[in-house]
Amino acid sequence: MANTAARSAEVEKKIDEILSKMTIEEKVGQMQQLAANMDAAKLDEYRKMGTIGSFLHVLGNDTQKYIEPAEKSRLGIKPIFGIDAIHGHALLKGATVFPSQLAAACTFDEQLVEKMGEVTAKEVAADGLDWVFSPVLCMGRDLRWGRIDETFGEDTEVVARLGAAIIKGYQKDGLVAACAKHYIAYGEATGGRDAYDSQVTERRVREVLLKPFKAAADAEVMSVMTAYGSIDGKPFTTSRKWLTDILKEELGFNGLIVTDWDNYKALVHGQRVCEDLCEACKDGILAGNDMCMYTDVFYNAAIEAVKNGEIPMSAIDDSVRRILRMKARLGLLDGMPARKLPPRSVIGCAEHVAVNYEVAKESAVLLKNNGVLPLGNVKSVAVIGPNADDVGAQYGDWTYYSHPNPNPQATPKDEVYTLLKGVREVFGDARVTYAKGCVIEDGDCGADSDKAMDEAVACAKAADVAVVVIGDRLKYNGEGKDVAQPILRGRQIELLKRVKAVNHKVVAVLVNGKPLVLSEAEGYCDAIVETFNGGDMCGLAAARLIKGEENFGGKLPISFPCGVGSGPDYYNQYDYWHGGRYADVKHENPYPFGFGLSYSRFEYSAPVLSAGKAKRDGAVRVSVTVKNASDVDGKETVQLYFRDRVCKMLTPVRKLLDFKKVFIGAGESKTVTFDVAVADLGYYDENCVYTVDAGAFDFYVSGDGINFGHAELIVE
To answer: What is the pTM assigned to this prediction?
Structure first.
């Protein structure tokens, strides 16, 4: 602790020295971030100044031309290079492309997600970059939202723990800075409309949405990004309450806050809450934003607002101090210890590929199996479907296919395993045939559509098993691609129906950015495997899983919709509803949060409490014995939920309190224990005061989100 305090004091002293020498222009320059894909002439003008604080989407050797002017400037302060490394350093072709956050969340494995962050940090740093705009700590609770794939799912406990884990991985050894985003309630936008107004209360934010950002602050995340949208009509970019009072002061966040892309300009021309850029700069800086992303006119407007007395120098100094503090942690200030960057040879190296495979394997979820899986050594396999050999669809958003500029015709690197490639390798002794069958497109699919469908049916008819790879593609998920209907588009259901008519073994593999309505499709499938956007190794992992060389261990971090318009479908809703269901869809959701099958069969004992009563400042231990009643080793995610049985405020039907992923050998039993602080069983009242009631609490233990063991605790 003494060394940490001394180091902190040394950093602050260095920053004081720098601040005392800086002009207004140099200070505001540090608060400006510019993008490599902006107007080339403007970018070059700013680059040559050498005083801009950060650049975005600059790759590899290109960084040097930005560093040199900074080193030659009066104070020699180097810029921070930021990149959207959402699931690996995926904007760089040749780097490791991991499964999406949503896919990785299916692992329920904090250590593995931390490794994912560590690998990404090494590859980003080896490419000469410093700052990853990840993780996304929004929650996927409205399936119409295009950015569901970037979330860790629908539950605050899972998002908080996996978010903190990947932050620790990113920031291990100080290689890169992580950025928790988008603060806050961005995923709650009305209608699932990206960057729209969020009609949520402060109580809902504190009850559900704030916990992941508290976990990020506790993990010492270096930066936080503000959300595009607004809460009850107040843009987050101008909300001092949420940025300064709550994030910086209440949560104790001492890093820097950066706006999202062009937020300052949006205050004037989009949300229309500011008359001009000077007013936008004043409102944004006084609210607590420290750096402006992309809006190049911020630089001149902010300087003008300072000189006019609209922005006090104390606010500028606080922001610049936070920026320089992050640069010091990254070894970018003279006199501060420099980072030891990994060699470029780590990018896409064998060690990283091995980690990527583990994430892909553990993130696959078996949704249905009527006994057809594992396939074993079949003689012939028909691989069918629009996503069977489509790297762009398998990657999803935020890769070199989509950013910084759209490139849907990109040539994939050789190391990518689509399902087709994976099946050909894993089922090497079998005859493997392929037919696309259809495209993922609404409306008329063209003159060759019937021919493609007929080819797929013939392919299926001649094989022992049909593996049909379906889902969605980037057109229907990703940033700015909200959809009204999360469905299997085009002729995909027809494809399944016709394949099932000629083959009695149909395995559907889903490659998709979000849960889709499967109510009709599932009737034509003997098994269903969910991979979401599984990254480079998805096809190999899925092929080994369906053959039986690996065992499924993934669980859903997000619920599937019962039907179009049935949302919200997240599990932890209130239960008072006249009728309790929509009249035109199935009430039971076969694929809820926490669900996932395995080749192992797990049996749960009734949960046991260490005591039947506890004080409000006390604790209790919940124990459950899980037996692997099969001859297949497996991993199981044991989930603990609770409910305050009678509460002055409405509470969800159940709320995830804790989870543990455990390995249990064939025929073995393992006792899983959860230590619960009674203080964690509370809620926020109508005045947003956290309260724990006396009375009865129900604990539920489950491995699938459907079947629950029950125990009762009395809080005195």
So the answer is: 0.97
Q: Environment class of residue 13 by beta-carbon count within 10 Å: exposed (0-12), middle (13-18) or buried (19+)?
A: exposed
Enter the DSSP assignment of 186.
G
Q: Where are the extended beta strands (E) located within 358-517? A: 365-369, 380-384, 431-435, 465-471, 506-511
Instruction: Look at residues 264, 286, 259 and name the one whose alpha carbon lies nearest to residue 275.
Output: 264
Q: Is residue 1 over pLDDT 60? A: no
What is the spatial distance between Cα 29 and Cα 26, in angstroms, rounded to a whole number? Answer: 5
CA dihedral 160, 162, 166, 169 (to 10 degrees): 110
- Does position 578 have pLDDT exceeding 90, yes or no? no
Q: Is the dihedral of CA 282, 284, 288, 293 positive or negative?
A: negative
Amino acid (one-letter) located at 189: A
SS3 call for 609: strand
In sequence order, which residues have a C-beta less than 8 Å from that of residue 539 and are 6 or more positions away?
Answer: 394, 416, 417, 418, 419, 420, 421, 422, 423
Q: Name the amino acid, one letter, at 151.
A: T
- Per-residue pLDDT of 417-428, as tens digits, reads 999 999 999 999
Q: How confident is the model at residue 584, as a pLDDT?
A: 87
The DSSP-derived string for 31-95 is TEEEETTS-HHHHHHHHHHS---EEES--GGGGHHHHHHHHHSSS-PPPEEEE--BTBSTTSTTS
What is the Cα–Cα distance from 450 to 491, expressed in whole angstroms?
10
d(CA 348, CA 400) in angstroms, rounded, equals 14
Coil, strand or helix at 710 = strand
Check if the beta carbon of residue 669 is closer than 8 Å to that of residue 568. Answer: no
Q: Looking at the predicted structure, is the pLDDT value of residue 111 above 60?
A: yes
When mean pLDDT is compared across 157-161, 406-410, 506-510, the lowest value belongs to: 406-410
d(CA 199, CA 398): 28
Q: Distance between CA 531 and CA 238 in Å, rounded? A: 39
CA 231-236-241 angle, 5° bins: 90
Residue 556 pLDDT: 98
Longest dimension (CA), the chain: 79
pLDDT given for residue 589 in this prediction: 81
Give residue-wise pLDDT tens across range 467-498: 999 999 999 999 889 999 999 999 999 999 99
pLDDT of residue 590: 86
Strands 695-702 and 709-715, how do they pair? Answer: antiparallel
Lateral strand order in the sheet of 465-471 = 365-369, 527-530, 506-511, 465-471, 380-384, 431-435
Question: 90 pLDDT band (50/70/90 cuts)?
Answer: very high
* Residues 183/228, Cβ–Cβ less than 8 Å: no
Alpha helices by DSSP H, 308-349: 313-329
The answer to whether residue 444 scores a pLDDT higher than 80 is no
- E strand segments, 246-369: 256-258, 292-293, 365-369
For 402-488, where are the alpha helices, taking DSSP H only? 419-426, 449-461
DSSP reduced 3-state for 673: strand
Element holding 180 (H helix, E strand) = strand 179-183
Structure tokens, 498: 């016709």
- State how far the Cα of 6 lies from the Cα of 27, in Å rounded to an integer: 26
Write down the H helix ranges in 181-293: 202-204, 211-218, 240, 263-269, 277-287
The yes-or-no verdict on residue 555 having pLDDT over 70 is yes
The rounded percent of the chain whose pLDDT value lies above 70 is 99
Neighbours of 90 (CB within 10 A): 28
CB-facing half-sphere around the CA of 398: CA atoms within 13 A? 31
Res 445: pLDDT: 60
Q: How close are the terminal C-alpha atoms of the chain, in Å?
A: 39
